[in-house]
Amino acid sequence: MDEELRRCYEKKELVSLYADIENTDKFLTGYINYTDDSGVIINHITPYGTYDGYVYLSVDDIYRLETHSIYIQKIKKLMSQNYRKKHKELKIDNEQSLFMNYLMFAKKNHMLISWQIGEESYAMNTGFIEEIKNEVIKISKITEFGEIDGETFIKLDCINSCQCDTLDEQILMQLLK
After folding, report:
1. Which residues contact 62 (CB under 8 A, 6 or more apart)?
2. 25 partner at 20 to 30 Å CA-CA among 37, 64, 75, 151?
3. How many Å apart are CA 74 and CA 49, to the nearest integer?
4. Mean pLDDT of all residues in the chain?
């Protein structure tokens, strides 16, 4: 899969990635912003062809990759009409892991981030990254109603997946104002 991910990254192909073996109908569509041996950052696109933030996935979780499908052709058509907000190119520091680059990007751009610990998809939490030190991330938590809900500290290696600036986080940003 690493070779295919790199090929799609280099050719800037729109892809669909499947990473939830328990729910084979669930997938992410977008462009690969960056990939390495451990992870991939997707410039996520909604089913309506609009910007939907960034998603980090572990390469080990990806079991299927699609290109040039009818669904992808549909998304390309919708993007040509609806894609207004553009994804930024991440500046990668090769001295750090891709995951750490992703987290630093979200912190620098003051993006809300949602993360999952374990395999349960309903266990997403959201907040702003305040600090990353000694393999622990300090996050200012935000409730589903856009209210500040204290701080939490999480060991980085416990985070299963995360996303930032997707539609869900954008809605919370509006509630915070």
Report:
1. 1, 5, 17, 18, 19, 40
2. 37
3. 8
4. 91
Using alpha carbons, select from 126, 168, 175 the residue that is nearest to residue 146.
175
Q: Are 46 and 81 in contact (CB under 8 A)?
A: no
Contact in structure between 137 and 103 (CB atoms under 8 Å): yes
CATH of the domain at 137: 2.30.30.100
Domain range for 69 is 1-89
Distance of alpha carbon 157 from alpha carbon 159, whole angstroms: 6
Same domain as 109, residue 132:
yes
Going across the sheet that includes 39-45, the strands are 64-67, 14-18, 28-35, 39-45, 51-58, 159-164, 113-117, 124-133, 136-142, 148-155
Q: Which tokens sit at 165? A: 């600036």
Average pLDDT over residues 1-6: 93
Domain tally for the chain?
2
Question: Are 40 and 96 in contact, with CB atoms under 8 Å apart?
Answer: no
Q: How confident is the model at residue 49 (pLDDT cuts 50, 70, 90)?
A: very high
User: How many CA atoms lie less than 13 Å away from 131 in the CB half-sphere?
Assistant: 6
Contact 73, 25 (CB under 8 A): no
